[in-house]
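Re: your question from the hallway

Yes, I did run it. Sequences:
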Amino acid sequence: MTTPVLLAVLALVLTGPAPALLARSDWPYRVPRAAVILWQAIALAAVLAALGAGIALSYSIAGRPGEPRFDPSSVRDLVAAAILAMVALVVVRLLWAIGRVAVGTRARRKRHRDLVDVLATPDGLIPGLRVLAEETPLAYCLPALRGARVVVSVGALDRLDDSELKAVLAHEQAHLRARHDLVLEEFTALHHAFPRWVRSDVALEQARTLVELLADDDARRRNGPRPLARALVALAGAPAPEAALAAAKSATVLRVQRLAGPAANESTLSAITYAAAAALLILPTITIAAPIVKAIVDAVS
Amino acid sequence: MEQLWASPAALTVREVHEQLAGTRELAYTTVMTVLDRLAKKKLTERERDGKAWRYRAAAPREELAADLMRDALDRAGDRREALVRFVGQVSDEEAALLREALSKLDDQEQTG
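Structure:
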């Protein structure tokens, strides 16, 4: 009976306190690449642990191993079967959410790209660049396997000098090259897969910030920190009709302050973070797999 | 597309081709393909007129532009993941913090 309890505790820790603690820490911002991996490991480990807890609970209720026959008159067997069915339901829900987010995102993106292609003017500065005749300062990218677009509005061009524009484009191209959108998609799917009362948007928000930092780092390596920081300030400080005010320190401030600091070389911290991510994934997997392996070994011998 | 937006009536491929021929050299089939694609993307509507299709823009340019901007600026919910924006808007306090960080960076540049 200890395995399901352990796994359930692990799942709870990984969905509640661990993300909350991690989101409040500053160190992940120093190693964004490793931090993205750690967040992914936490999410995956939480799902594995929760599913594993269900499977293990079902096993321990169903009774002694070596008696695999399902007995419909036994209450224990029925409860065990019900738990397994719930586990299956969660898996289906998760897969459904992943599929729905993937299809929905692609459809919206395609529609948006069609609009961009008829409304905006191509510019040869970088491949896929489109200039939009709008006063609102805007710069964003539309990721795709083929035919990705970087969209910049005239309002944004007016506010940027050459080096700043280059930094913005380098940032967007980094997003496109590394397919950061796929990382965000995973967390969005996970966010949608669970009912409102258990999910939180901490992981998704953190993933959003971290991929921005990754793209910033890439642009910084190419053009230095100054043009990018100035571009961020120029575009973020511009008045917008519907500026949603963030209560907390927003990612933009974090990004500019980070660019103002020295370029970090945090190989130790990043190695520790990777190790933590690996450990997180191995822990629930072994806990689930161990009894199964043992059962197989017992059966063979 | 510009030709369709400019025209009050629906145009055939031949008419669009003739209008464009003055400024650009385009093959008739190219115009046909482009119009066909636009129709598939539901950016144009078309109707049979004898043997030929007549095309018209599905919506005025301003309406599509408004659509696009709404999509691009939307910060809520599902749509956010479709586009990855360079940077969002910030509050006044944050703008002050930003300028402070930037001037720190400028100082470094001068001293370093």
